[in-house]
Each structure stands twice: as C-alpha cells, then as structure tokens.
Design goal:
Strand order of the largest sheet: 1-3-2-4-5-6-7
Number of strands: 7
Distance between the termini: 16 Å
Number of helices: 4
Radius of gyration: 14 Å
Oligomer: single chain
Order of helices and strands: HEHEEHEHEEE
Structural class: alpha/beta
C-alpha cells in the first residue's frame, strides 16, 4: 500500500461522475465539491457534486463560494448520511496535465481551514484522475493517480 492508498479512498461512482461531467463540459473546465468523511485520518470520498461556472474556459474553472454552498447543502440533504461532509474539490483539465501550481496553492489554503486533510481530484483528458492530498499549507502533499480512473483500465 502506497502513501496515497493510506491517505485516500475514492468510490468508483466518484470517478465516473467526474468523467461524465468533464466530457459534457469539454472543451471547457468544470468542477465541484467532494463529499465524504475521515476515518482514522484517511479521506473516504463517496460523492462528487458539480458546481457550474458559467465563465469557465479551456484553462479556468472557478468555484463560486455561494453556488458551492447551495450545491453542498442540497447534496447533504439528498444523501442524508450522518458522517457526510465536505472533504475537498475536483475539476477537469481539458488538456492532458494534472494539478497546476495554482491548484496546489488553492487546496493547501483550503486545508489550512480544517483539522483534517483535504483532497483535490483533477480529471485529465487521458481519463486519469490525479489526486492531491494535503493536511495544511505547511505539510507536504501526497500525489498520485486514482487506480480506478474510468478510462485508465487495469495495469
């Protein structure tokens, strides 16, 4: 088991939801919030919720705080799971690259507001989903590919 496996578990439904949203938005970026919980410092990601950005481009998607809060509250109400909460963000990259330096800075800043680690998932055009886990802006990041990315197949 590698560092990413020890820090993160992502339900297959999450990568499928992200892949479908990325395909529908292509060639623009899209993204949203991740819902799950922490279990012994491991992030358990169970749902991905899209938060549309009407101004998204091929190189930019911005999560509007108010829109994200509404989407988050609706998803929490709909799912009704007592442990479920915000555990991170996701977005797509229409070009074939993973998390940018701006993405890393953003998730590190967000992690500084939480007592638990946060995750960023980035869907690439090759079907891979890159995961970035951080506990705060001062701690190292754990990065890697989600093994069950929908288009990755098995190795």
């Amino acid at each position: 088991m590698n560092d990413l496996d020890q820090a993160l578990q992502v339900a297959a439904e999450v990568t499928l939801t992200i892949a479908a949203a990325a395909a529908a938005a292509h060639p623009r970026e899209t993204g949203g919030v991740l819902l799950g919980w922490w279990l012994d410092e491991r992030i358990m990601v169970h749902y991905a919720v899209e938060v549309p950005d009407p101004d998204a481009t091929q190189g930019s998607w911005v999560r509007d705080y108010d829109t994200a809060q509404v989407a988050l509250q609706e998803a929490l109400r709909d799912q009704g799971h007592p442990w479920l909460g915000y555990v991170g963000d996701w977005h797509s990259h229409p070009a074939n690259f993973g998390a940018s330096s701006q993405d890393l800075t953003s998730i590190q800043r967000a992690a500084n507001q939480y007592d638990h680690p946060l995750v960023l998932l980035v869907h690439r055009t090759d079907g891979h989903v890159e995961a970035v886990v951080t506990t705060s802006g001062d701690h190292p990041l754990i990065r890697g590919l989600i093994p069950d990315s929908p288009e990755r197949g098995t190795t």
